[in-house]
Design a protein that fits this description.
heterodimer; A: alpha/beta; Rossmann fold; 2 domains; six-stranded mixed beta sheet; 10 strands; B: alpha/beta; Ubiquitin-like (UB roll); GMP Synthetase, Chain A, domain 3; five-stranded mixed beta sheet; three-stranded mixed beta sheet; 5 helices; 21% helix
């Protein structure tokens, strides 16, 4: 048996950094071509694909795992189990590999082939749940496996774990506050578990209650925006309070595709689908604020990059 | 012809909570047209302004992506199942029936100089996902031989199975020899008849 007496994860990203040390402190990039020309409205985005596992989910997964260890709920004999539409699974798989845990994931069968390859490469055990049922099918699948043998698993349950949003309250929010020198006026983010929106939103509202917090959801229960949830027709995550954001904007899959293509071809950034949804919504918001002749600093989060979506057909459309 | 359309959970609010709807149609297009005619609230979710199926949606007939089978013109027959799945499925590497048939048409009965597809020996090809190998499919072939009790049967079964198993994207292959219904010469293609001087 491997010695899993844990060394504390190394802090910082300098030489000798481990997986945990590379999480966070992502750059805040400018999307000049998406801001109304000649306006005083700017759009900035956290480039979360720069996390070591390639997505924003590294933040929440790391905190949920480390808190599990700290509180004694996660011990070396346990298998980590959760439901995910992909990115959290990849984050867990990296962390489980680095910390020596077994991992079991429930994933909808229709996630992108690239994600399936990544999970397989990291050695995760994956249980595919019905493509027809989407992420809710995966959530039910994981809960069922856990209930059959609760002693065997550590079940972080990202949809109901407060450490999910706290990761953003303690890190992503403060990073945005610092990098904008407190000048942020709007925070807009897509919701899946709601962790990013709740954590960053709560932190920013405490700093300045005038900051507007806006959620972005798919415009239909039937969508191709991996990781996002149409809350009205889904199991609403326990950590997500739909009444918390000042407003919710709804984005079509096609509008997100269009934003992804424009980000690639006009800005040189290869962003993922939920990033495209965030950007499309941020652009709508920017136009509206500009029509009211107000200056604004809109900040959003790009949960991942395009690398997991390169086989999708939408790249060839226009 | 009645075909079953499997409705994703996210859209069942528009089909009075039915998980499957049976409609008539000879092609995928006809079946889906019928579906949105019967349940008009589904239309904006499935069909783009151009009238085409929205680009992120994949449509499968019995696990085969229709993009490999003539797209919306893909024929459907009595008892087929159509599923509608958002394209986060990707599905780029699916094995198609056509590819399996192409491969089978390189297999021969040792005594007859016509391949087993043109001879009409292939009764059924079913492709289904492998739960433990998401990138791969399971292929099940039902074939017959020209004469019951043919001594070559086990050898042909093994050879065909090995060829199908070796295809890209195939994780498991099973070739089953069936004698019902019995093969008759009218199952042969015109090419086979010509080759055998029976035309």
């Amino acid at each position: 048996m491997k010695d899993r007496t844990k060394r504390s994860p190394a802090r910082g990203r300098g030489p000798g950094a481990d997986f945990f040390g590379l999480i966070g402190r992502t750059p805040l990039i400018a999307l000049g071509k998406f801001s109304p020309p000649g306006s005083k409205v700017r759009i900035l985005a956290k480039a979360e694909w720069q996390n070591p596992g390639g997505s924003v989910k590294d933040r929440a997964a790391a905190r949920m795992i480390l808190e599990g260890e700290r509180t004694g709920k996660l011990t070396p004999d346990k298998t980590i189990l959760d439901a995910t539409s992909g990115n959290t699974g990849i984050a867990y798989a990296c962390i489980a590999a680095a910390r020596g845990y077994r991992l079991k994931l429930c994933v909808p069968a229709n996630i992108s082939p690239e994600r399936k390859h990544i999970l397989a490469a990291l050695g995760a055990e994956v249980i595919y749940t019905s493509a027809l049922e989407g992420s809710d099918g995966a959530i039910r699948g994981a809960a069922k496996i856990f209930d059959q043998d609760p002693g065997r698993y550590f079940f972080p349950n990202q949809y109901g774990n407060d450490n999910n949003w706290r990761a953003h309250y303690h890190a992503t929010g403060p990073e945005i506050w610092k990098d904008t020198r407190g000048k942020i006026t709007h925070f807009i983010a897509t919701v899946g578990t709601g962790g990013t929106l709740m954590g960053v939103g709560r932190f920013l509202k405490e700093k300045n209650r005038k900051i507007r917090v806006i959620a972005v959801e798919p415009d239909s229960p039937f969508h191709g925006l991996e990781g996002m949830k149409h809350m009205a027709s889904s199991i609403v995550p326990k950590i997500y309070d739909r009444s918390f954001p000042d407003e919710t904007l709804f984005v079509s899959t096609e509008a997100a595709h269009e934003a992804v293509r424009r980000a690639a071809r006009q800005e040189g950034f290869l962003i993922g689908l939920s990033s495209g949804a965030a950007l499309a919504a941020a652009e709508t918001l920017a136009r509206r604020v500009d029509s009211e002749k107000k200056p604004a600093l809109i900040v959003t989060v790009f949960p991942d990059g395009a690398d997991k979506y390169l086989t999708e057909r939408f790249w060839k459309e226009d | 012809m009645p075909v079953t359309i499997l409705i994703p959970t996210a859209l069942r609010a528009h089909t009075r909570q039915q998980s499957a709807v049976t409609v008539d149609g000879r092609t995928v297009q006809e079946a889906l047209d019928r579906l949105v005619a019967d349940y008009p609230d589904l239309k904006p979710h499935l069909v783009a302004e151009s009238g085409k199926i929205r680009s992120f949606i994949n449509v499968f007939v019995n696990e085969d992506d229709i993009r490999q089978k003539g797209d919306m013109k893909a024929p459907v027959k009595n008892g087929d199942e159509i599923s509608i799945v958002p394209s986060i499925a990707g599905g780029a590497e699916a094995v198609s029936k056509d590819k399996v048939m192409d491969l089978l048409s390189t297999c021969y009965d040792p005594e007859i100089p016509v391949n087993i597809v043109d001879l009409g020996l292939i009764y059924e090809v079913n492709i289904s996902p492998l739960p433990d190998q998401p990138e791969k499919s399971k292929v099940h072939v039902k074939m017959s031989l020209t004469a019951p009790g043919c001594p070559e049967a086990p050898k042909m079964q093994a050879e065909t199975e090995a060829k199908v198993s070796a295809m890209d994207g195939v994780g498991a292959a099973q070739v089953e020899i069936v004698w019902e219904p019995q093969w008759t010469p009218d199952r042969m293609s015109d090419a086979a008849r010509l080759e055998l001087g029976m035309a």
